[in-house]
Design a protein that fits this description.
It is built from eight helices and seven strands; from the N terminus they run H-H-H-E-H-E-H-E-H-E-H-E-H-E-E. By secondary structure, it is α/β, with parallel strands linked by helices.
Length: 235
């Protein structure tokens, strides 16, 4: 994909040209041309949004996870320009819906336009406001329980996002959290960065609560050295 980012943008650090080359090689062979996603990237860039969306290969993974789980109710925390939202919506079961939470009204407007262009506006509800404020209101607004939750927002709040995700998900639901490795700093007990501390606290919560049966996968590619967590909500 010619417009894939060539440097690390998601983990904020280490990158290697070989990782980029392999990502591009795989994308060219596994992903068909995609006008809607290309247009979403272009529109997001033109609107001044940061280029921190998932990569094309990661987006396809989200689509496949949604399909594999037969998800009808999907929650996304962190919309940005709607790139990952498009990928999640494409994996929905018939009649399904994505509820995506975005703090920035500007980002939400860009996402809505991207979703409309992709023909998915009728399957997605964009909720504007700080996620920690809007999450508790979702049940009273008729959203949930959720079959799949994707968390990709401000990392210091990840422990709180995860608590809400578990409370709002049905038993057996899948939870995916992006950017948990952050070029290896997650294993550094002395790293003072709030993003690192947020991920460490989230992992400690999982270890202590037993509410999520989970694993984490380290990744390299156009997003640099990072990784994601995936788990199943226990009953």
């Amino acid at each position: 994909m010619s417009d894939m980012p060539r440097r690390s943008t998601g983990s904020g650090g280490l990158s290697d040209p070989r990782w980029d080359e392999v990502d591009e090689y795989l994308a060219l062979r596994l992903l068909p041309a995609d006008d809607a996603l290309d247009a979403a990237l272009e529109a997001s860039s033109a609107a001044g949004l940061p280029p921190i969306q998932v990569s094309p290969l990661q987006g396809r993974l989200l689509t496949l996870v949604a399909r594999l789980t037969g998800a009808r109710e999907v929650l996304e925390i962190g919309t940005l320009g709607g790139y990952s939202t498009i990928c999640l919506a494409r994996g929905l079961a018939p009649g399904g819906r994505v509820v995506t939470l975005e703090r920035s009204p500007h980002h939400a407007d860009v996402a809505r336009r991207n979703l409309d262009r992709a023909g998915l506006a009728d399957r997605v509800e964009v909720v504007v406001g700080a996620a920690l404020d809007t999450l508790p209101t979702l049940p009273s607004r008729g959203y949930g329980p959720f079959d799949l939750v994707f968390i990709d927002a401000d990392k210091p709040a990840n422990p709180l996002y995860l608590r809400h995700a578990i409370d709002l998900a049905r038993p057996g639901a899948v939870v995916v959290v992006d950017n948990v490795v952050r070029h290896g700093t997650v294993a550094d007990a002395d790293d003072p960065h709030p993003d690192v501390i947020g991920n460490q606290e989230m992992l400690n919560l999982i270890a202590l609560s037993g509410a999520l049966e989970a694993t984490a996968v380290q990744t390299v590619g156009v997003k640099g050295y990072d990784g994601f967590l995936i788990g199943i909500v226990r009953g």
